[in-house]
Structure formats: C-alpha cells, structure tokens
C-alpha cells in the first residue's frame, strides 16, 4: 500500500498538474496488488469509483497497453473507462508512468469545456515522468527508513539480550554459586551470611529487571496516564544520564486521558528523543513540553547541545536529509505516521535541537 508520505506527494503533484494543464480534473491512478487505485485527485470533479480491478475493467485494459491516449469528445466504447470512474469530459489526456519494476500508474487530465492541444500533451508527458521520478525517490527513502527501523529494533533487542545476559543472568549465577559454596562448607554461620548477601543481591537484580521492564512498557503509562509517566521518565533520565530536565505539560484539565495508542506514541517519541540527547547531543539540559491546543497535541523535546550537523536555515528536515545525516529519528517518524502525525527535527533557538511531534485529534478513538 502507498505510505502516508507517498499519498501526500501524489496529492501535491495532482494540484500542480491541474494548474499546469489548466484542466478541470486531474487524477493520479496507481497500480496496487493487481488493482488500480485513484490515489489522488484535484479539480472540480472527483472519481466516484476509487478502485478498479486490472483484469476485466476498461481502465485496466487501457493501463496494460502502456500507451498515452488523447480523446476529444469521447463516446461509446472509447468512453467506457470514463464511465467506470464516474467521469464526464469534453476532452481527456492519459499518460502512463512506470516505477522500474514496482508497478506504475496513469495521470489522467480532463477538461469540461475545451480540448487539449499538442503542447498540453507534451506537458503531460513531462509531468508524468516527473511524478514517476518523485515517487521512485520517495519510495527509496521509505525503504531506507524501514530498513533503518528494522536495524534499530534489532539493535534494541540485542541490547536487551546483552543486559539480561551480562547483568541479570550472570548476577543470578554468581549468587547461586555463593549460596552453593556456603551450603557445601557445612558452616551455619557462613550459610547465614551467604543468605543475607544473596537476599541483598536478589533485590538489586529485581531492581534491574524492573528498570528493563519499564523501558519495555512503563506501568505508569497504563495505570496513571501520560503525564505521570512522562514525569517519571524525566526523573529517571535525570538520575541515570545526569541531565537537568524540565517538564511543561498541559493536557486539558489534567484528568483527561488520550487514547492508548496516542499516549504510547507520545511517550515513546519523548523517550527516544531523550535517549538521543543523552547519547549524542552533548547537552546539559532538556525541556519536555506537551500541550493540547486547537484540536492538536504537540510534544517537543528541546536540548542545549551541539545542535544539528551542518545547520542551515531553520527549517524542518526532509526524511531523505534525516536518513543521510544519520539523525536516528526514523523510528520516531514511523510512530508519528502510524497515528497520523508529523515529526520535525529543527534547530532550537539559541542552539541545540528540537524534536517536535504534532498529532491532530480529529477522528481519533475515545480513550478506554
């Protein structure tokens, strides 16, 4: 399926194509799993049918020819595919595009009151080639993002396995050995001392397990909500990483819960941003800010560190720039897209960097 960034790109290109050709309607049709989907449209009339099978439809037959088409006053058999889409037009131009082994699509331009000329056909041909190039580039970035996300998850699993093996398993093994040695000595005093030592060691190992479990799924998030969980996260980061962290959280009346998926996403993005600050930013302070205004929830983490590499104009970086620069935010961006949000990484005023997540609340489920 098309990703959110690909749909956004096609919608943007549809608006541009409509203006370029001075058309009444412009459609972007993309092949997906042996179906043709109207992925984006612009203009006065929208297609009434959004999905058609490639086999057995007139639009599918047109697509499989791989040829451009120009129709003036389409009627009868040649207008069948227009009727399938629920469109009527005085003139139509169709230009196919290919995505190098990843399928392809059609750009369809229609006018209601005049015909198209040769310059329009050449313009649509160049425009369709541009759509293919931009979409291929976006898909390449998306593949890289998914690959980086998988690598990050594998690194995280490796870290958990190493912590469990090197810290907890070896610690428990040492305690077991100490207890066994005391038993074999047959000395009641030594055994009693060993039991006290083992009990103390077990407490430390339990604390280590609790810390690891908290990283995997914080109980405070489920039991008490986002605000206490973020405040606990800030205290833990202060204690472990030595950062000075301030929280500024305003969510309604303080008692209202967001839906579980959104709360989890906000928590994880803030957690990952703080991890990046402690590991890479060389910062001493960070500010966690979460607010709900104008139907949106915004969460930011701002630090006073070295800032972004090769800082240019103060603007959000594109996914391609983030991947190229190694900012390590691909996992956060994936989480943002899954809840319909937007993630930005921008320079902070006065130095440092800001990670900003914005999620619209419209259409989200009610909290359980």
Q: How many beta-strand elements?
A: 11
Beta fraction: 15-25%
Number of domains: 3
For the biggest β-sheet, the strand order reads: 3-2-1-6-5-4
Kindly report the average pLDDT value.
Answer: 84
Question: Order of SSEs, N→C?
Answer: HEEEHEHEEHHHHEHEEHHEE
Name the structural class. alpha+beta
Overall, the morphology is elongated
List low-confidence stretches: 311-327
What is the annotated CATH architecture of the largest domain?
2-Layer Sandwich
Count the DSSP helices. 10
Q: Which fold does the CATH topology of the largest domain refer to?
A: Beta-Lactamase
Using only C-alpha atoms, the radius of gyration works out to 29 Å
What keyword list fits this structure?
single chain; 368 residues; alpha+beta; Beta-Lactamase; Heat Shock Protein 90; six-stranded antiparallel β-sheet; five-stranded mixed β-sheet; 10 helices; 21% strand
